[in-house]
What we know:
The protein is an alpha/beta fold and 430 residues long. It has two domains: 2-53 and 357-403, Urease, subunit C, domain 1, CATH 2.30.40; 55-344, TIM Barrel (Alpha-Beta Barrel). The chain has 16 helices and 16 strands. The protein has helices spanning 76-88, 93-109, 122-132, 155-166, 170-173, 189-202, 214-224, 228-234, 252-261, 269-274, 282-287, 307-322, 330-337, 339-344, 378-384, 412-429; strands at residues 2-9, 15-24, 27-32, 43-45, 49-53, 55-60, 112-119, 135-142, 175-181, 206-210, 242-246, 264-267, 291-294, 361-365, 391-396, 399-403. A hairpin with a 2-residue loop joins strand 2 (15-24) and strand 3. Helix 2 (93-109) runs parallel beside helix 3. The longest helix is centred in the C-terminal third of the chain and has 18 residues, at 412-429. It is globular.
Amino acid sequence: MLFRHIDALRADGTLLPEVFVGVRDKRIAYIGSEEPAGDWGEAVDGADYLMIPGLINSHTHVAMTLMRGYGDDMPLDRWLNDRIFPFEDKLTGEDVYWGSLLGIAEMLSSGTTSFSDMYYFCDRVAQAVRESGIKANIGRGISCFDPDKRFADLPAYRELAELLGSVHGEDDGRILIDVAPHSEYTTRPDILADTAQLAADYRARMQVHVSETRKEHLECVERHGMTPAQVLEKVGVLDQPVTAAHCVWLSEADMARFAAHGVTAAHCPKSNLKLASGIAQVEKMQRMGLRVALGTDSAASNNALDMLEEMRTAALIAKGVSLDPCALPAGRVLYMATREGALAQGREDCGDIAEGMRADLVLLRRDSTRMTPCCHSALSNLLYAAQSADVAMTMADGRVLYRDGAFPTLDIERIRWETNRCVAQLLKRT
């Protein structure tokens, strides 16, 4: 595919004006001011579009689209214990499959090309990812409340080991399996240590919730005399490549600890605001050398999986909290939502618009009222005005997965119908 005369925003916010972008064999094969020779297949007139790198959702629980609107306006501990956990106890693999497809469709239609997930029935999540064409790092959530259970005794261990052996790296790395202990407060130090060893054995990455709420953070200090970050360091989790979700209540010492270990914090501003968990100190993290990416968390706590909204929210709350209009500028936020997220997933050849990179690309319409005028700053329009309705095309590995309201790889009407059917049945069982 060849895009002609298109304005392209690189991950750092640099604008490439009116360039030709050629896609071949899953990659960006050409970028230049002159039209390349040869047959590139379909040619797209880029005059009315803005091209950006595919957005990367660095933390979500995609199948929880099934719980969108189910437990709103509640604090996190009550939300989890009174609404979410009882609902999840009734889930089947089929429920997770259809909920995952719905979430994937929502992400594709709003410009996301890859996501990092933590959930259950991960074989069915992988099936949804496989069929849709999107990229994903799939983490099997690991929790253990039984003091007598060993890690190897847990069903989660057996499921994870099977996924690591059979799915990890599938389709030229499009699907990756992460080791994902839920958190310090839902496991034990010895189990956390075992998960780190498993990740090391398979050279896999890790995901874990860290210091999402003040209560979680302080109770860990009371239990262990250490913060959650310190516990993770002590048991060896931080010796692996880790994405730490939320990180709202990290101390400065924790930030320095994470920075030293190369941890990426997945900032989820909308979910943290909605659950009143607090606001992560993103600028301080970045000043201390900690990598920060962006995620939506789940549709149960957000309630959308829209990375454009997440980018705007991240930029605005940073300015509002600091009383500094220059805080977290647009170019840095775009980098967090693209290249930083790709690196957190271990995808070195993703997250930017450059020759040789994977062709994970998004086109936004520039002729909408929100994107007009387009002569001042394409980057500002993207961050502060664009909405998912402006997304015209989403491409991953050079394959078009969403275009002008249509999903070439998905039966969206059936997905909606099956999701509603699953939810109706679940409500009867809860």
